[in-house]
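Thread: Newbie trying to understand structure tokens

Hi all, I'm a second-year student working on a class project, and my supervisor (Dr. K.) asked me to get a predicted structure for one chain before our next meeting. I've only ever worked with sequences, so writing a 3D structure as a token string is new to me. If someone could post the tokens and maybe explain what I'm looking at, I'd be very grateful. Here's the chain:
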Amino acid sequence: MDLRRYPDVEGPGLVAVDAADRLILDETAVLIDDLAVRRDEVVVIDDSYGALTLGLLDPVPGTATIRVHQDLVTGEQALAANADRLGFAGFESVSLSPELVTGARLVVMRLPRSLDRLAEVAAMIAAHAAPDAVVVGGGRIKHMTPRMNDVLREVFDRVDVSHARQKSRVLFARGPQRDAAAGRVRSWPRTEQHPDVGLDVIAHGGVFAGTGVDIGTRLLLAHLTEAGADATLRTAVDLGCGNGTIAAWLARAHPDARVLATDRSAAAVASAQATAAANGVADRVTVRRVDGADGIADGAVDVVVLNPPFHSDAALATGIAEHLFAESARVLRPGGELWCVWNSHLRYRGALTRIVGPTRQIARNPKFTVTASVRA
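---
Reply by user tm_fold:
Sure, no problem. This is what the structure looks like when written as tokens:
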């Protein structure tokens, strides 16, 4: 299939379908006949750009829809766009919930890199799927660890491993342990108190930093009281909010401000909403699952705060960061500021000056730099 990543970052070497997707589909093809599943018994989780969902529509019989959950809204949008362009139908997007997996007999998924994310998803499946359900989860070997097998064995009777192919591998989980899984489902989301920043942080599995406050965010928060100091701060955006630490902190520090927190991740959005509620600021923090600053009017914001995602692929990291810098510049009012913390070796100051406006260094340590850029 000729799929695109759009609206996610596109560029040379960034593919929409990889060897892991192809291996997952090949291994699943055998099970479709063995289990005699229909579409309403099939669930797809964390399909990157639609390869798994679209690849299952023809082999799986039935007139119902395949249930799909993608944590990233960009993956959801890419699946919809690819399906529309190629003329596919027969799937529906569902949140990570009992509704997603109730009665499922075949669950096909990309394995997350986060063991916490895998634990939360696996527990949801095992607690609500059919007794004979089979989970087929695959990924690139470089992103897989033996601990994934252990996590699955906590809620399934049996875990098998495929042969490797093109640096990819698939895990098969069978025999859901309903009682054990139900208890683990209730353990999410998790909570941690952070007296040093005055917040309780709540997080679902797979959210950046989990229930912690990462060291970059700590450096940023140590100086963020200066944001908007030259004018009344009325509107602020926490762009890529993760667990909602920054959004909740801003709302606590600026009682008259309205804070909008955005993230591509459904797990992050749920976490940020829970963190805002736990800290008594849910009435002034709105959380949206969008890509960047989608839906925010041009020139409407006093301050944007950003801790851009870091990836080992420098080109990908730069592409994502510059997209978020441009979104910040679009929504900031003239004279508004983008406060940003970034890994110092990425040297973003030039890009910030070019895309947003004059940029000054606020703080720096051996690993992170905090800057403030004024919208020209």
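A couple of things are worth pointing out once you decode it. The mean pLDDT is 95. The two ends are 44 Å apart (CA to CA). Feel free to ask follow-ups in this thread.
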